[in-house]
Amino acid sequence: MRLIGIAVVLSLCLFLSPLAQAQPVTLPLIAVLDPGLASNPSVGTAYFKEALARLGWVEGRTVRFETRYGEYQPDRTSAMAKELVALKPDVLYTSSDGPVRAAMRGAKAGDLPVEQPTKVDLTINLKAAKTLGLTVPQSVLVRAGEIIQ
Description:
Layout (H helix, E strand, L loop, with lengths): L1 H20 L7 E6 L8 H12 L9 E6 L4 H13 L4 E4 L3 H7 L18 E3 H6 L6 H4 L4 E3 L1
Parallel strand pairs: 1-2, 1-3, 4-5
Helix pairs in contact: 3-4
């Protein structure tokens, strides 16, 4: 009788094992909007991905990236921003300046000024960081121009 019980347990394990393995794992999605060219990503985008990798967030293993490039064209950047938002990412990152952020908010490209950035504005989303299991050091928080709770 005991052997029958063991045989039933083993049979169930063999039957259920492929089912357990078939369940897809959904990795967190980070959407990246780079205002530049795919052939030459901005330093900010490259640094962001490298910093995450150093923290253990490896593309394809622990996180998914969807990156879009604006090719320095405001209309394209706005379209790419809308495309990324439609993916409902866990985090949306851009290393861009004010006009690109305005395009992301729906401003018309013709209304955007052509300007050179004069400063870098750091915005930190603590809710997104918490979702990813990241702790933002106080030394970084004090440098942020905006902190999203």
